[in-house]
Design a protein that fits this description.
This protein is α/β, with parallel strands linked by helices. It has 4 helices and 9 strands.
Length: about 230
């Protein structure tokens, strides 16, 4: 689903959201109900494509945890009601490459079990947000971290253990002019180059409790800047 650059979004007055964020948001970009429906469709697509393979799901924290949890739950429900059962194991890593709303040069990767156990396994990266360049069509993605540079580092760390297959699911893909973006195997929404919060996407650890995906305003950035 593509959201155009001139999409005005939804008025905040149409939705409920935490009172402590009043005055900090511009508008609702994607309401929670639409996120849920789109995630369920992604789960169906993954079920159709994965075949009889068991999978290891790598959730990229912290921004990816809500999308990952909902996606995995939808896959489990589909698996329980189908003739073929898909076994899933879930692991977690954390990436850090933002300071306020700016992407940092250096990135930190922490967490995760011994990745050598992934040899020969089908591997799913479950993330929240990816930035990509429209003219490039590689099949990768990343979470809330801002550029494809992040995905290169993470994938290089995984690929050296020779998993049978790597697939990437991202809730959001952000259009950007930066030349190091990627495109995921599965994604929910393609959005303009905006700094978005909500549905576990944060700004300095705030807004994770916001169910809708919203655009933060200048007042919100100044209020929670560190």
């Amino acid at each position: 689903i593509q959201i155009s650059d001139n999409w005005p979004g939804y008025s905040l007055d149409l939705f409920t959201y935490p009172q402590h964020y009043y005055g900090d948001l511009e508008y609702v970009l994607i309401p929670h109900g639409i996120i849920v429906d789109r995630t369920e469709r992604l789960a169906k697509d993954i079920m159709q494509d994965i075949g009889d393979n068991d999978i290891v799901v790598l959730c990229v924290l912290k921004g990816g945890y809500k999308f990952c949890a909902d996606l995995v739950e939808h896959i489990k429900n589909l698996s329980r009601n189908s003739e073929r059962f898909i076994s899933m194991k879930v692991d977690f890593v954390r990436l850090k490459s933002y300071h306020n709303d700016q992407s940092m040069q250096d990135m930190q990767i922490t967490g995760g079990d011994d990745l050598s156990k992934l040899t020969g396994k089908v591997y799913f990266l479950c993330l929240a947000l990816l930035c990509f360049l429209l003219t490039i069509f590689f099949m990768f993605c990343k979470d809330i971290v801002g550029t494809g540079r992040t995905m290169k580092v993470l994938l290089n760390n995984i690929e050296k253990y020779k998993p049978k297959m790597i697939k990437v699911a991202s809730l959001l893909v952000k259009r950007t002019s930066r030349p190091d973006g990627y495109r995921p195997d599965y994604y929910g929404f393609e959005i303009p180059d905006l700094f978005v919060v909500g549905y576990a996407l944060d700004y300095n650890e705030h807004f994770r409790d916001l169910n809708h995906i919203c655009v933060i305003n200048d007042h919100g950035k100044a209020k929670y800047r560190v």
